[in-house]
Amino acid sequence: PALLATVYLLFIVALLRKISAMSWVVFVRELNRSVSHKIFIFSVINVFWGMTISGMLVDSWSQLTSGEKESFEEVLKLFVKSIPPQASFFISFFIIKTFSGIPLAMLNAKKVALLYIRRGLFGSGDGNAAHPDKDGELAG
C-alpha cells in the first residue's frame, strides 16, 4: 500500500503540474507555487475524507456487517456521528503536518546564507557590482 500511495502521489503531482501549466502560468516559480498549493489542498481533502470514512468503518464494522443498519439513512446517521471524533484527529494531524514544515524550512538557512555570501563576494550580477578595471583596481 505504501508503494502504491507513492506512485499515486507521483501521478497526481504530474497531473496537477499539467493542469497548472494549462492555466497560462508564466514563470516556473509561479507554476511550482500553484502545484504546491493544489497538492496541499488535495492532501487535506484526501486525508480528511479517508480518515473519516476509514474511522467510521473501523468503529462501526460490527454494526454494519451484522445487519443492524439496513437503510441508507441509518448508515448516514452513523457516518455523521463518527465525524466529530475523526475531525479532532484530523485537526491534530493537520496542525502537526503544518508546523512540522517550519523546522524543515529552517534547514534551508544554510543555502540562504551561502547565497548572500556569494552575492557579497562575487557581486549581484546586475552589472553594478564592483569589478576590476584595466589597471586591476576595483572600479565602483
TrEMBL record:
- GO molecular function ontology, one term from the record: calcium-activated cation channel activity
- What residues form the membrane-spanning segments? 6-27, 39-58, 87-109
Q: Which domain of life is it from?
A: Eukaryota
Domain CSC1/OSCA1-like 7TM region intervals: 1-123
State the UniProt keywords alphabetically. Answer: Membrane, Transmembrane, Transmembrane helix
One Pfam family of this protein, by short name? RSN1_7TM
List, alphabetically, the GO terms of the cellular component aspect: plasma membrane
Q: What is this protein called?
A: CSC1/OSCA1-like 7TM region domain-containing protein
**Which organism encodes this protein?**
Pyramimonas obovata
